[in-house]
Amino acid sequence: QRGLSYFVRRDDLLLIFVNTMWSGLGGEGRVETAWLAQTLRDHTDARHKLVLGHHPVHPINGYAGEYQRTIEEEAGRAFWQILVEHNVLAYLCSHIMAFDVQVQQGVLQILTGGAGTLPLTPATEYLHAVQCALDADGLRYQVLDTSGQAREWLRWPLALPSESAWQELTHGVQDAPFVLPNAEAAGDAHLVIWRFEGIAAHAADGTPQTLLSMWNAGPQLAPFWIGLMGAEQRVALLLSPEPGRSPRYWLGP
Q1: pTM of this structure
Q2: pLDDT tens, 42-54?
Q3: What are 100-125's pLDDT values in tens digits?
Q4: Phi first, then psi: what are they for 21, rounded to 5°?
Q5: How many angstroms separate the CA atoms of 9 and 16, rounded?
Q6: Is the separation of the CB atoms in 114 and 133 below 8 Å?
Q7: Is the dihedral of CA 225, 229, 235, 236 positive or negative?
Q8: Do residues 90 and 50 touch, judged by C-beta distance below 8 A?
Q9: Nearest to 75 by CA among 152, 2, 21
């Protein structure tokens, strides 16, 4: 397996490729962290640092499990801490037949899998191709489906609006303060940012606490909900685009 972990340096760009099936540590789900840390120390002057491997570190879309689906937990924590300490922009990986992106401690994990293989759950995942650019303004990508439609996009780091552009939402029920245009009609994607300030109630029993909810009249779940939930009162985002179906969860800190 020699040569499966290596790096490429071109001017301000550093690409590091790691073998997440290293037999020297036992095979699938293992990764050599000492070499990774030393390589990053040797190239601290690189402006853009990307690490690429096969297995994700953080579970995506419910597909969890050490070794077979993610890097072994202890090695994964050490691996990710190295990325954080050395200001790595993103870890690009595959393995799961899906597309997913998440930010952990300021580092992106971008997973794109498939290469033409059917997705694991066609109702929520889809065949896709990713277009990506990296320049002085940061990282930008868009995810295209088989019809050529851009289904997802990201610009990182996020460009927050100026203080004068923020709009205050008062407590209670009110009409939506804005309406997003249809994506196809608008010809561009839109970024909406919420900032919550306040003191949450004590909910040791895990009672959900709503921060923001949008819904139509009816008994179904709110199509969009942000709040705190669970015994740890973690920030959560729930999307329920299909009435009668379970919501999709995104968990934060």
Answers
A1: 0.81
A2: 999 999 999 999 9
A3: 999 999 999 999 987 666 666 777 78
A4: -130, 40
A5: 9
A6: no
A7: negative
A8: yes
A9: 21
The more confident residue out of 173 and 182 is: 173
**Read out DSSP for 67-93?**
TTTB--HHHHHHHHHHHHHTT--EEEE
Question: Residue 214, exposed/middle/buried by CB under 10 A (0-12, 13-18, 19+)?
Answer: exposed
Q: Are 108 and 89 in contact (CB under 8 A)?
A: yes
Cα distance between residue 228 and residue 97, in whole Å: 30
Is CATH 3.60.21.10 the right assignment for the domain spanning 6-156? yes
Domain chopping of the chain, boundaries:
6-156, 160-253
Beta strands in 56-193 (DSSP E): 90-93, 99-104, 107-112, 129-135, 138-144, 150-156
Backbone angles phi, psi at 33, to 5 degrees: -95, -30
Considering Cα of 92, then 95, then 101, then 102, what sign does the dihedral take?
Answer: negative
d(CA 47, CA 49): 7
DSSP annotation of 183 reads H
Which pair of structure tokens corresponds to residue 101? 């992106």
